[in-house]
Amino acid sequence: MMNWTILQWVLLLASAGQIQSHALRFTILEEQEAGIKIGSLSRNYSAPYQLFDEYIRVDESTGDLFTKKRIDRETLCPSHQDRDCTFSNTAVVSHSEFVLITIVVDDINDNAPIFERDEIHIRIPEDASNGTGFPLDDQAHDKDFANNGLIHYHLEGSDGFFGIRQDGYELELVVQRKLDRETQENHFLVLVAVDGGSVPLSATAILNVTVTDVNDNCPEFDADSPITAIVPGLGIKGTAVAQLKATDKDLGQNAQITFSFSRQISDRAKTLFHMDGNTGLISLAVDVQVDSPEEHVLKVFANSPLCPPAQTQVTIYIQPVTSPEPTIKIRFVAENKNQVIVLQENEPPTVLALLELEDTSSDKGTLSLEADSMPFSLKPKAGSYLLLTSKPLDFEMCSEYDVTVVISDPHGTRLHGRKVIKVVVEDVNDNAPMFDQTHYEKDIKENNIPGVFLLKVQATDADSHQFGKVRYRLTNGGPFIIHEETGVISVAESLDREQQDRYQLTVLARDGGDPSQEGSAIVSINVLDLNDNPPAFSTPHFYFFVSESLPRLSQVGKVTVSDTDEGDNGKIVDVRILNEKVPFAIDLAQGLIRSTGEVDREKQDRYELLVVATDAGRPALSTTVKMTVFVEDVNDNQPKVLLPSSNLSCQTISPATRAGSMITKIYAIDEDSGMNSDITYQIVASEPALHSPFQIDQHSGNITLVQHLRNEDYGMHHLFVVIRDGGKPDPLQTTVWVNLLVNETREKCHVNAVPEYLPATLPPPMPLKDCRGESNAWLVFFLSGLALMLISGCVLLTVVVMIMKHKHTKRKVKKKNAWETGNLCELKPLN
Questions:
Q1: What percent of the chain has pLDDT over 90?
Q2: Residues of the signal sequence (predicted)?
Q3: Between the chain's N and C termini, which has fewer beta carbons within 10 Å?
Q4: Is residue 653 within 8 Å of residue 740, measured between CB atoms?
Q5: Does 768 score more than 80 pLDDT?
Q6: pLDDT single digits (tens) 363-386
Q7: At a CB cut-off of 8 Å and minimum separation 6, what does 354 contact?
């Protein structure tokens, strides 16, 4: 229907040949409320105005353009992120002209940047040099336009290892410190995207950097190197001689180690011994039988790619084949498994075994322990020996012992042999987990992303296996969770400093013993403030009332504003009125609105103000509220007479004028309002003084002729009229002379001067009549009379009907009797 109306306009004007085309351009910010004025057509064109548009309407009489509803630039122009967003329509003005109206929708920063993924993974080799950049393809997007959609990035939580380099739309993660996978394999960073709005908006994503391994560590032999080994005189091929151990801190292929002999070992050694390049096991390459002792010193290399070989030394003694020597018979007292004594730690000094010397020679031998055999002792007992511990064993100090028993002749001059007894210490759960520090403290900014990494706690247990396996838990976690195996604490939800600014958690580490043991540590978390709360006024709209007689610097009202943030973020640094050239200002120290200039209700009866409060945060936040100041009237304007135009104005009246006719009118105005502008008129003096034939209506100012003009009324009449307003307690007034000439001729009359005298005092105003009361009284009287007439008519009608009905009934009875008696003569026609 709307389009058909526009088409009719076009056809009509086209047929008249009067179509003209012009163009106007207006600008509006997006997301404005409905009813916001955009501009006006009245500056260029005259009324009436017509416009049919989805978003804009026009006032037909004033030409003002207003929004019909909120306009979202991103919805209206989803693909115009790099140019203006406009829409156009045609308005009809002055019944005959078409005006092309183009509306430019300006962008506001109402969209925050958005990352497509909450967590971004990137792999960087540990040998990356400082300054090396790695592209980040997972960038944020912002729907806004120009600076509002321009995104800048920075990192949080990088500890100086990484930085951000941004070149236009290219984004790189830059290495700033030496990386070491063996020290820290994963870095959890926060990538922050901030747009360029005047009040910027931001988004964050977790940046998970995995440091990949390079071959930057070389093999190292274990601390028990160099090794000494003894081979009996009758050795069998394949017998293990020594086991070498070496480690490389790298991963995978970078940690692969191969073992080899140095080329400098003797040919005899090359013949006797075999090296397993993968395991480091040295074994006999041939059967061995020697008659004299041999000593072989072997140099062994541990090799890894791109590394110089690590080396150690292995000394091997080969004992000669001799006549049968004394042997030791072991009778185990303590628990044993496959000739290995098993003893729990922390046991008091305990007998482990009974040793008996079986001597095949004539000379009895003796048994003793090597000097480094602590904490064991050998005690003679009736020709035998008791092997026992000299103190409780501690698994955490040493888990295995090789107790060497030496067989020598009675004089100690000849060594007949050695016997090694292996003792294995079994672990018990005698150690509680211990944290690397008893108190952790960490800062985190509020409004974090849920699930973000916070910190990692570390506890160790000196026990072994299940006894030393630690699991973590929080006793008062609140919004925090801990990974029970890794000790990583993360934040399960977004924190709000205004709700709680500090958390103190208790972390428990429990081992796998039964019963288990626990260790604890305290974690203090400080929630850092962000400027996420704008200043808040006590009400969204302030109303104040002032008198127009208000002196300068008087108090108008008080404005209360607060900010729940802390520090500079919660400090209100500016409260001001945005409107220019208004007679009000804000005293920031006291929050008072004061007058700064003249307030005149007759010039402006109210002030619609916008008040903004700004905090000291970076970036600063602000809030705007409306304030309406109503100016109350005081009686500061006396009535002004517009008609007659002066005291010398004159009007001629014909003697034939009928009584009751209106002769002239006094018209006055008062710029005040209410009772202060309620005007009454009163004739207080006349010339001639007696029997003036003229009367004035105190409300309308109409002057009427109240009686027929007589001969003595001919001539000039001067009426002195007082015009008063209704101000309380002291009304203001003005006066005027009304000059009337009663004369047969219609010539224009002239007055050169008004009477010289004035009344000494002006009479008080006449009591006002309530014309509405009189009107209502006459109306009530009229309606009452009409009601009585209606009631009387109804009663009369009822009586007539009843009489007619009675007559009709009586006639029917008489007719019936006549038929019954046969006397038809009695039937007479009814008149």
A1: 37
A2: 1-21
A3: C
A4: yes
A5: no
A6: 567 888 887 778 998 888 887 888
A7: 330, 331, 333, 381, 384, 385, 386, 387
Residue 809 is predicted with a pLDDT of 58
Classified as helix, coil or strand, 378 is: strand
> Are the beta carbons of 689 and 718 closer than 8 angstroms?
no
Bridge partners (DSSP) listed for residue 20: 97
Which domains can be identified in the chain, with CATH numbers?
2-106 (2.60.40.60), 119-212 (2.60.40.60), 220-318 (2.60.40.60), 327-426 (2.60.40.60), 434-528 (2.60.40.60), 536-632 (2.60.40.60), 640-765 (2.60.40.60)
Take residue 433 and report the two structure tokens written for it.
């987990």
Residues 311 and 308: their CA atoms lie apart, in Å, by 9
Angle 124-130-131 from CA coordinates, rounded to 5°: 90
Quick: pLDDT tens for 266-302.
888 888 999 998 998 999 999 888 878 888 999 999 8
Please check whether residue 509 is in contact with residue 425, taking contact to mean a CB–CB distance below 8 angstroms. no
Q: Which residues, at least 6 apart from 641, have a Cβ–Cβ distance to it below 8 Å?
A: 666, 667, 668, 723, 734, 736
Give kind and range of the element (H or E) at residue 74: helix 73-76
Per DSSP, the residues of 297-335 read EEEEEEE-TTSPPEEEEEEEEEPPP-S---EEEEEE-S-
CA–CA separation, 634 and 675 (whole Å): 10
CA distance 549 to 727: 15
Radius of gyration of the chain (CA): 58
Residues 447-463 pLDDT 10s: 999 989 999 999 999 88
- Neighbouring CB atoms inside 10 A of 496's CB total 16
